[in-house]
Amino acid sequence: MLIIDSDKCTACGICETSCAFGAITVSDNCAVVNESCTLCGACVENCPVEALHIESAGKKIQSDINAYSGIMVFAEYRHGNVAPVSYELLGIGRKLADKRGVKLSVILPGGNVAPFADSLIAAGADTVLLAEDPILEQFREDVYAAILVQVIRDQKPEVVLAGATAIGRSVIPYVAHAIDAGLTADCTKLEIREEDGMLLQTRPAFGGNIMATIECPHSRPQMATVRPKVMAPAEPDPSRKGEIFQVHLSEQVVQTKIEVLDSVIDNEDQTNIQEVEALVAGGRGLESEKGFSLIRELANELGGAVAASRAAVDSGWIPYPHQVGQTGKTVSPKLYIACGISGAVQHAVGMQSAEIVVAINRDGKAPIFDIATYGVVGDLYEVIPQLIKRLQEIKK
Amino acid sequence: MNIIVCIKQVPDAKDVRLDPITNTLAREGVESIMNPYDRHALEEAVAIKEQQGGRVTVITMGPPQAETVLREAIACGADEGVLVSDRAFAGADTWATSYTLAQTVQTLGDFDLVLCGKQAIDGDTAQVGPGLACRLNIPYATCVQKTRKVSDKVIEVERMMDDGFDVLRLPLPALMTVVKDINEPRVASLKGKMKAKKAEIRKFSASDIGAEIQNIGLAGSPTQVVKVFSPEARGDRKIFSGSVEEQVDQLVECLRAHL
Amino acid sequence: MDYFFTEQQQMIIDTAREITNEKIIPLRAELDEKNQFPKAILQDIAKADLFSIFVPEEYGGFGGGCYEIVLAMEELARGCVGVATSFAASALGIFPVLISGSEEQKQRYLPDIAEGSRWAAFGLTEANAGSDASGIQTTAVLDGDEWVLNGTKQWITNGGEAQIYTIVAMTDPQKGARGASIFIVEDGDPGFSYGKKEDKMGIRSSATRELILKDCRIPQDRLVGRKGTGFITVMKTLDISRPGIASLGIGLAQAALDEAVVYAKQRVQFGKPIISFQAVQHMLADMAIQLEAGRALVYAAARHIDSNPKNISKASSMCKVFATDMAMKVTTDAVQVLGGYGYMKEYPVEKMMRDAKILQIYEGTNQIQRNVVGQELNREYS
């Protein structure tokens, strides 16, 4: 419940403007809260006279928090390979574990996953837990969830990290709910407090226009997903030592209700925008599907690929695999040219780790210029042809 | 077939911004809309109903004004709307929301299929669907791009993966979350709108759904937002000026070293 | 400006607006380029019950009047006049049945029209009968208990796409206009086929096609109204449909004005958005003034018609002329405001200007409309 101290309140109205839900109004010289309040805390944060606070009745507090120790990574296996995000998670996991002085373990379910154990140790794991069974050759939410719940209950890690991939985003929320754990999706930054192991999880909120830092103060493990390419994997160290265990899987655990009839790899548009060095991205400013032919021309000139903002994908100008941003892919090319993209954080989180960002936009005040290395203010239909022309001249 | 669709009223996210000076959320002109993914879940439910017969019930957890999206859903083909509203729900994270929706679904009785949007655009977490399936103890598929077959016993769907898609068969009752590719939502019809205007919306409070107080709202939420802030700008940036030709020349000069 | 719509009217406007924003605008450029009939959009329009607004409630319709039709069409035309024309043509095609059809004919056709499961088209124009409808050469002869139709209809909107056609044919060629009758011909009737599909300057998504009647045999009960009253029904049909065409001009001009203002605010020349230059401002102001005057006239005419007065020709013709001439002017000016960009297909105003031209031509040229107004004036002052 949001409590407003009428003695302290000066009716300045800052809380009213700070509320995204229209839940506060100022009347009779005091702020009044209505039923739209979601207890987001924005008003509490902004009140200059500390007249507001949130009171929570009987917050659930887990009693055995101190029994949890160590960092655990959920590594993903599909079609005979371990997903690259697993190594990236081990990179950040290692840092968190070292700061806390605890062990880093990794759980890898799959059909035949033993051959990958050494590479996981080389990437930073102290302990590798292999869950092997023929049924795990395909991803099934129920079996994967049962294994993860079993392993987490057994190992009691204080932090569990997973990739924000199709698999991770599907199974991890189920697991978090099953074990009453807090889960933060799509973290772009993870830090841990040395003294109490509190994981500070930062992610975009409100459609990505704002960043939020999230904690799970009263429960363990603290679970987080991280999008591929956000964290860097550690340089593999083949001399690292680690332990390898097989997880015992009871018949009950590998039981499934889900029948996988087919597993189709989509051959269409195979260029993975996460794997090229130069990306040219188009957004709402293209104003039509045709703009992408110009974008494609520039991308070809640079030997790169075409990317897009959510607005362009939502308008149906280009298919979803090209989408960069919070709800699309995260990319980190050497060069990223954003054309007609305003640059809301929702897009920025997907591309801000690019080495060089070039922004081309008619609106000189667009937020994209805040994250750009170089900015060209002008009509992209004039700028891009000129840029292509100059690039061609240089080649000659 | 009894189909339940979970929908959410969200602020139109593209309008929400943090004022860089006051560090407050600028909400002027921000409209409330039905979460776009949920429109696709609703359309799929209505399409399945039209094919299989049955009933579509939409539920939403939110403030009293969330009733608007329930009426919108009825106008688009849903049969009934249920509003789960209580100040005790405030501050719910995805765990507490999943719990609350599960209690609501169970209060409503028998069901065959639960549909949700892949995620809500205000949080983009994609956690409530799987969490709800966990609480209801039913099989589920996330990010469904196509319903291939439905009968009264099973459903066959295409579930999007990062490298393609899987074709799954789930026994009913089951839950699925859908992506936008699954269908083109219809525009609410005139008859639908008139029906929606008159429709009786059922209203549930925390006690109506038998919710335990320590599992709902802020109390039932393991996660807690401790700070909100605007993202940082790049330090070493150069914004060019002059004619298009001049700007492009400067850009090419800067990029030359890297090309 | 607030026109004080009823709740039902507002509902119609909102529904048509959603169709326009979600279904028409994203597809209009492609449909225009490919000369493609908007079948899926018309199905969406049907699902949204918009085809029911011009059908009386007893036949499963919404029971709206001319005003309601005008409001829906204006919104659809804001998206694409080609799509809106396809919608309008279905209304036009079924009006003869609504005006003069038998109870049995109404029961047979109107529920399907309201549901949008079947579309209609109006077969009046021929190679030698445009503005002068008395030049019709298509004939209908009773043979036993069947009518036999022969002739070719030209430039028929929804031709080949509609399932129900109202055809004007001479049953008594010697009597001229008094020898015309209207018949319902259905897709698939023996001797009924489609000819050349036209390639047009504008409204390219609408289907414009020849209808070929070659010993087309239809049952006797397909005659609409009494024999020889066809021409009167045609005139009544056009009188109530013309405000609809006028409303297409209103919606189109609104779309063009919207594009022009948005562009003028964004486009920077000499260091300022071009909307800050008086030359541009005055153009935009004139566009807005003429548009609003046109809208007020169309709404007034539609309300006038709905009040069931004796003579509606003058009001109907006046609003058609004013609104469509205005649309031509406003879309041309919108292209001018956008300058070189306006002339390119990347921006929608180019299509809008092409689409506008037909509005001055079809459903009676604006010259014919002025004749009507002039004749009415002559009569009023006699």
Notable features of this structure?
heterotrimer, A: 396 residues, alpha/beta, seven-stranded parallel sheet, 10 helices, 26% helix, B: 259 residues, nine-stranded mixed sheet, two-stranded antiparallel ribbon, 6 helices, 15 strands, 28% helix, globular
3D architecture notes:
The complex is a heterotrimer of chains A (396), B (259) and C (382). Chain A is built from ten helices and 22 strands. Chain A has helices at 14-18, 42-46, 84-100, 117-122, 141-155, 166-178, 291-302, 310-314, 345-351, 380-395, and strands at residues 2-4, 24-27, 30-33, 52-54, 71-74, 77-78, 81-82, 104-110, 127-132, 159-163, 182-187, 189-192, 199-205, 210-215, 222-226, 243-246, 259-265, 278-282, 305-308, 335-339, 356-361, 374-377. In chain A, strand 20 (335-339), helix 9 (345-351) and strand 21 (356-361) form a beta-alpha-beta unit. In chain A, helix 5 (141-155) packs across helix 6 (166-178). Chain B has 259 residues and is an alpha/beta fold. Chain B has helices spanning 36-52, 67-75, 94-108, 128-136, 190-198, 244-256; strands spanning 2-6, 9-11, 17-18, 25-26, 32-34, 55-61, 80-84, 113-117, 140-150, 154-161, 164-171, 174-178, 202-204, 224-229, 238-239. A nine-stranded mixed β-sheet of chain B has the order 11-10-9-12-8-1-6-7-13, with helices on both faces. In chain B, strands 2-5 form a two-stranded antiparallel ribbon. Chain B has a two-stranded antiparallel sheet with strand order 3-4. In chain C, helix 5 packs antiparallel against helix 7, helix 7 (230-266) packs antiparallel against helix 8 (278-306) and helix 7 (230-266) packs parallel to helix 9. At the A-C interface, loops of A face loops of C.
Summarize it.
Chain A is of the alpha/beta class.
Write the layout of secondary structure elements.
The complex is a heterotrimer of chains A (396), B (259) and C (382).
Chain A: E1 2-4, H1 14-18, E2 24-27, E3 30-33, H2 42-46, E4 52-54, E5 71-74, E6 77-78, E7 81-82, H3 84-100, E8 104-110, H4 117-122, E9 127-132, H5 141-155, E10 159-163, H6 166-178, E11 182-187, E12 189-192, E13 199-205, E14 210-215, E15 222-226, E16 243-246, E17 259-265, E18 278-282, H7 291-302, E19 305-308, H8 310-314, E20 335-339, H9 345-351, E21 356-361, E22 374-377, H10 380-395
Chain B: E1 2-6, E2 9-11, E3 17-18, E4 25-26, E5 32-34, H1 36-52, E6 55-61, H2 67-75, E7 80-84, H3 94-108, E8 113-117, H4 128-136, E9 140-150, E10 154-161, E11 164-171, E12 174-178, H5 190-198, E13 202-204, E14 224-229, E15 238-239, H6 244-256
Chain C: H1 7-24, H2 28-34, H3 39-47, H4 66-79, H5 81-100, H6 103-115, E1 120-123, E2 139-143, E3 146-157, E4 164-170, E5 180-186, E6 192-197, E7 208-219, E8 223-224, H7 230-266, E9 268-269, E10 272-273, H8 278-306, H9 313-343, H10 349-359, H11 366-380
Parallel strand pairs in C: 1-4
Antiparallel strand pairs in C: 2-3, 3-7, 4-5, 5-8, 6-7, 9-10
